[in-house]
Design brief:
By secondary structure, this protein is α/β, with parallel strands linked by helices. The protein has three domains: about 1-70, no CATH class; about 75-160 and about 335-358, 3-Layer(aba) Sandwich (Rossmann fold), CATH 3.40.50.2000; about 175-330, Rossmann fold. Helix content is about 40%, strand content about 10%. Helix 11 (about 285-290) links the parallel strand 11 and strand 12 (about 295). The radius of gyration is 21 Å and the shape is globular. The two termini are about 30 Å apart.
Length: about 350
């Protein structure tokens, strides 16, 4: 479904860890001989099949189904998404499902075309084990769905070794900038970052706010930026996946005002690159940022400006937060994700003792 994306990166990293270390006790069987996904191609898990037009996903699935040769019946199926065409018949292997977030349930107004996770509940009800990418997501799942039958386990996401200090600085990067990364939909609170930056801009004329990704500024965003006289101080840029470590590492600070995250991978990537972070004190943000990040109440632009101002004004304080961030990011490795996942699998298959829980 995706050329790139967090879900596919997660599965590619899991499969890579299981494949390179048999002691984890998981032998992946995958149907990715052909794939449109760049993460899978880069990892050697499939060949690119480039089909123009909107039918490419269906054609790739058909090509894979006609060329698959499974060495044995699997002990467990871990489906990547909540696809309506998945049907587990009688005698099918037990199903593992990962819950990434509860955004459609909590923010239905963001999805006027309908819930993109419409089949999530059916997958949860059918699952033998439910994995959640954060404790925050697990709490939300149980609060919104009630006491589900399957056991649940937390398998945090992670950051790979390419996210590290010292990556090449982007040619377009200002000398000193605060970074906002990703889409700018309502609950991401880009407006809060704008208001906080406007508060600081007059006393700190050397700093720029850079929004990476999310597409060009909308007419409403541009009007707000111009009203505050920040047309040359707030810019939008795009960056490739390979450029992201440099984008994070060159930033003076990373700001993530989002009110809701299933995990918040950009926080981890920023810390791994040595960049101090300021986060909204909400959902999974404290779980990921730990003691390394600075926090502010969600939606409070004045409090965000205060925390951001502390970082921008004090180089020694930034260095301290950078060191704490590197240590915090080091706690989240794909090896640990794979270990927690294999423990969860064993809970279902009975092959050894698992470490999951409700």
């Amino acid at each position: 479904m995706q050329r790139r994306g967090g879900i596919s990166r997660y599965f590619v990293e899991l499969i890579t860890e299981f494949t390179k270390d048999p002691s984890l006790g998981v032998t992946p069987q995958i149907g990715w001989r052909w794939t449109n996904n760049a993460h899978a191609v880069e990892a050697g898990l499939g060949r690119p099949l480039r089909i123009p037009g909107g039918s490419r996903g269906r054609i790739v699935r058909l090509a894979n189904r006609t060329t698959q040769i499974w060495p044995a019946a699997p002990d467990l199926v871990h489906d990547t998404y909540y696809r309506p065409d998945y049907r587990a018949g009688r005698g099918a292997p037990p199903l593992a499902v990962t819950i990434y977030d509860m955004t459609p349930e909590l923010f239905p107004e963001l999805f006027p075309g309908g819930n993109p996770h419409a089949n999530k509940r059916a997958f949860v009800e059918r699952a033998a084990i439910v994995l959640c990418i954060s404790e925050s997501t697990r709490r939300d799942l149980l609060r919104l769905y009630g006491d589900i039958a399957a056991p649940t386990a937390v398998t945090h996401l992670a950051v790979g070794p390419r996210f590290a200090p010292g990556a090449a600085r982007p040619a377009w990067a200002p000398a000193r900038y605060v970074l906002f990364l990703g889409v700018r939909v309502a609950h991401k609170d880009f407006r809060v970052a704008l208001e906080a930056f406007a508060t600081l801009a007059q006393s700190d004329p050397s700093t720029t706010l850079v929004a990476v990704g999310g597409g060009p500024f909308t007419g409403d965003e541009t009007a707000v930026i111009d009203r505050w006289g920040l047309g040359d101080r707030v810019v939008q840029r795009d960056a490739s996946d390979s450029e992201l470590p440099g984008v994070f590492g060159a930033a003076t600070a990373f700001v993530f005002p989002s009110r809701y995250e299933g995990f918040g991978l950009p926080t981890l990537e920023a810390m791994a690159c040595g960049t101090p972070t300021v986060l909204a004190d909400s959902s999974s943000n404290p779980e990921v940022g730990g003691p390394a990040a600075l926090y502010f109440p969600p939606g409070d632009h004045a409090a965000l400006a205060t925390q951001l101002g502390r970082l921008l004004a004090d180089e020694a304080f930034r260095a301290q937060r950078s060191a704490l961030g590197l240590a915090q990011a080091g706690r989240f490795t794909w090896r640990r994700t794979a270990e927690a996942t294999s423990d969860a699998y064993r809970l279902v298959t009975g092959s050894g003792s698992g470490a999951g829980g409700r």
